[in-house]
Amino acid sequence: MSTMKKVCKYRILGIFGIMLSLLLLIGCGHQQFRTFMLESDPTLIENWGPNGVTWNGRSFVIGDNNLIIEHSSVETGIFFHPNFIYNNDGFFHIPRHIVYLNKIVGNPVKICSLAWEGECCGKGFLWIGDAHNKEIIKLTGNYEFIKRIPSPANSPTGLTFDGKYLWVSDSSTSTIYKISPNNGKVLEVFVSPIEKPSGLAWDCSGLWIIGTNTCKHPSKDCFERQLLRMDVINGKVTHEIKLPRQIEMPSSLVWVEGILWAGDYRLNRVFKLSERLAYEVDDIKIHKASVQAVPAGKKTARTEEVISK
Q1: Helices (H), 66-196
Q2: pLDDT of 307 above 80
Q3: Can you spell out the DSSP letters for 37-73?
Q4: What is the mean pLDDT of residues 206-211?
Q5: Cβ(177)–Cβ(170) under 8 Å?
Q6: Position 123 confidence tier, pLDDT thresholds 50, 70, 90
Q7: I want to staple 60 with a disulfide (CB 3.0 to 4.6 A). Which of 10, 71, 251, 291 is the partner?
Q8: Residue 213's closest CA among 197, 201, 229?
Q9: DSSP notation for 266-295
């Protein structure tokens, strides 16, 4: 073998060795896609991300602050680490114009959760948790205003629809509410098994909860990320999925045909998690609480309806 060939061989082996060392150092990657939230406005200087995410039967609907953006034809890519140059941001198509919720409802809003009511192909209704006004807003599938109902949560960070009722989580009080979609009446109350629940998802029979717990030795950036499934009949946690270490700040959750999609606000990405990763948890604690525990002041929020459905 000539000297030149030997040099090329050793260079290739050296590059391969460096890449292998990097992969071992940062660990295996995880499937996800990077959302369009930051690119939606080049003048944005604050961090925007998937504060709310849901599935309308054909597209992911992602929201934050006053913006709602559909992401269709999603293909995931592998993400290793924020500073890794070989991350794959995935692919998606933006099928329609960006929706500005404040222009639809006529006042300032702060989107912190989304839920879909309906089946396939965008034929249904979009529910939106609004932290600014402590309300839950209902829109048509074409983003026309229907009504708003009071939110029992000061910070409705999680929202999902079980086919009949809405579920709302409050990260500031570690509480989960089951409410009527007609008027916002609280029907059941649960103490969240996660200290700061930031996303909810309904899997046809149970409630998935994602969020963070304060570390045993707390510091400014120290929190434990967790994803649990709760049986809403007996109020017990039944399953857990260990979140990949790539997820830094879980902010939203949606269940789609056996797959859980978890939004990360800090990274502006949505991670793909298989329900098959779940393992059973032997939880003896009952998380169900009394409805009377809801502060009476919650009843003062307004209810407004402009379209009868």
Answers
A1: 101-105
A2: no
A3: TGGG-TT--S----SEEEE-SSEEEEEEBTEEEEEEE
A4: 97
A5: yes
A6: confident
A7: 71
A8: 197
A9: TTTEEEEEEGGG-EE-------EE-GGGS-
Q: Give the integer Cα–Cα distance in Å for 25 and 219.
A: 25
pLDDT digits (tens, 9 = 90+) for 215-244: 766 555 677 899 999 999 999 999 999 999
Q: Residue 306, SS3? A: coil
Nearest CA to 29 out of 87, 91, 92, 90 is that of 87
The residue whose two tokens read 């009476």 is 296
> Average pLDDT, stretch 29-49?
74
Q: How many residues does the chain have?
A: 309
Tell me the residue type at 280: E
pLDDT confidence of residue 22: 45
| Structure token pair of residue 305 | 């309806």
Helix (H, G, I), strand (E, B) or coil at 207: strand
Which pTM does this prediction carry?
Answer: 0.85
Nearest to 126 by CA among 104, 154, 93, 97: 104
DSSP lists the bridge partners of residue 41 as none
